[in-house]
Amino acid sequence: MYLNNYINNDMVDNWPRRALSHEMDRMKLIVNRPSLPSWSEFEELAKEIWDSGYLTNFGTVHNKLLHNLELVFKTANFALCNNCTNGLIGAIKIIALPKKKKVITTPFTFAATAHSIIWAEKEPVFVDIGKEGFCISPETVEPAIDSNTSAILPVHCYGLPCDIEGFRKLSHKTGIPVIYDAAHAFGVKVNGKSLLSEGSASIVSTHATKVFNTVEGGIAYFSDNKHLQRFTAMTNFGINRGMTDQLGFNGKLSELHAAVGLLSLKDFSKRVIERSKVWNYYDKFFSEIDAVETSVIPHGVKLNYAYYPVKIVNRNINLDDLVRKLAAKDIIVRKYFSELLTKMPFFKDSIIIGTLDNAAAISDRILCLPIHENYVSHMDFITTEFLTAIK
Ligand SMILES: Cc1ncc(COP(=O)(O)O)c(C=O)c1O
Q1: Which of 58, 141, 236, 248 is deepest in the core (most CB within 10 A)?
Q2: Model confidence at 257, in pLDDT bands (50, 70, 90)?
Q3: In which band, very low, low, confident or very high, does the pLDDT at 25 lie, cut at 50, 70 and 90?
Q4: What's the gap in Å between 348 CA and the centre of ligand 1?
């Protein structure tokens, strides 16, 4: 009744139908199904938040989540924000060298990576990914560096790490800061160390589709504590000790969003173990299928198993047909990332240095398959249907 005063009847009438179609979507084996804590736990914590009347602005649950993340990842240099895109914008604003305009990045990514550069009043420069893997490399970035380069923005694509040692050396040699788009990299470790505390900044997405989520949200790491303080103030309208002393925006994570993260964090390791079973099942299955190339996890890397990217090397297989055939069986795969950003209307006139041959070859043939902690019992079905679909 209360809602009826605010919402017209047509909208109310459509609710059950929308709820139903949403429910049906949940039955499908979708590629990035959200990982959620139990409803009863969430309800209990949400009720506490409700009753406290304190819903946002660095509240108790936000602070608890931040504290727990710092314990888990053994760093004291995180801030939470309302999404990775805003985190990246803030990090570029704070860290990229002033008066220099260009930020070198990858075309094999989601639009948010390059959007954040433009929102931060810089210009993206696209270079190729390396011969192996899905990331730009020091070898493809170095020839693109010039006197106007203000930062390097690599993406740990699918959570598979970039050459962090190579970028550390390149940054040291040139004085150009590296800001990582670590949107996919929550929980990934390299030689026992979290990937989230690399570069001058690393920004994670905790969007609903990510392996750890706060519905919408982000985690920002800064190696320099002064940058961290500035970022925290920036996401709160630039307010520092009661006074606005810089350009800011509203980038805060609410208590309800933080609650989802706080409850999910407890089970994160268990979920990764289940996801690794799905990954290993796929690996074994595809090792006998010539048409499909899988990804090798580099030595020393502990993955979060957020994505299962495969390259369909047999060019007789039409990817759109394959996606459609699998969707007909409720197996939802994605051509992620296809097209390259440089092929999209908004970015088509951007600066490109060198060829983008490696990125183009991958983006043409890439598919991400469903991976989730609840899919272990569906693996036989998914792989059997996949085989039928590529025949
Ligand atoms: C590589 C990459 N960067 C940035 C983002 C943006 O993340 P958010 O939705 O948290 O802003 C995404 C989203 O999926 C992404 O894939």
Answers
A1: 141
A2: very high
A3: low
A4: 20
The CA distance from 23 to 3, in Å, is 22
Decide: 106 in ligand 1 pocket, CB within 6 A. no
Does 268-390 match 39-265 at the fold level? no
**Ligand 1 contacts CB of residue 155 (under 6 A):** yes
Short-list 171, 221, 170, 153, CA closest to 193 = 221
Ligand 1 pocket residue status of 183, Cβ below 6 Å: yes
Q: Under CATH, what is the fold of the domain 39-265?
A: Aspartate Aminotransferase; domain 2 (3.40.640)
Amino acid at 124: P
Beta strand segments in 98-244, E: 102-105, 123-126, 149-153, 179-181, 189-190, 193-194, 201-205, 218-222, 239-240, 243-244
What is the best residue among 195, 205, 219, 338 to mutate for testing ligand 1's pocket, by most ligand atoms within 8 Å of CB? 205
Phi, psi of 189 (to 5 degrees): -125, 145
Per the listing, tokens 């499908």 go with 28
- The architecture that CATH gives domain 268-390 is Alpha-Beta Complex (3.90)
Q: Does the Cβ of 180 fall within 6 Å of ligand 1? A: no
Q: Is pLDDT above 80 for 172?
A: yes
The answer on pLDDT for 16 being more than 60 is: no
Q: Is 150 in the pocket of ligand 1 (CB under 6 A)?
A: no
Given ligand 1 and candidates 85, 89, 92, 257, which is best to mutate, with the most ligand atoms within 8 Å of its CB?
A: 85
Closest C-alpha to 308, from 318, 294, 322: 294
- At residue 376 the predicted structure's pLDDT band, cuts being 50, 70 and 90, is very high
Domain coordinates in residue numbering, the chain: 39-265, 268-390
